[in-house]
Amino acid sequence: MARPSPYSPEFREEAVQLALKSSKPTAHVARELEMNPETLRTWVRQYEREHGRQGGPLPASGESRVIAPLAS
């Protein structure tokens, strides 16, 4: 059985919104909130899956856009 989260749903929502709106990397936001960066990244990814990408900084996971080659 999973251990209950030490974070309230309100804290989780505020942390995700802060990470999405911040120009700082997710890991930096997590350190400011004194929490594990991977926990915050997981929450942000889950939020984006459930609500669609809302803009904000690019993910720090190395994802990038694919650019089609120019037609000659």
Automatic annotation (TrEMBL):
Signal peptide: none annotated. Coiled coil: none annotated. Pfam families: HTH_Tnp_1. InterPro entries: Homeodomain-like_sf (IPR009057), Transposase_8 (IPR002514), WH-like_DNA-bd_sf (IPR036388). It comes from the Bacteria. This is Transposase. Gene3D superfamilies: Winged helix-like DNA-binding domain superfamily/Winged helix DNA-binding domain. Residues 48-72 are annotated as: Disordered. SUPFAM superfamilies: Homeodomain-like.
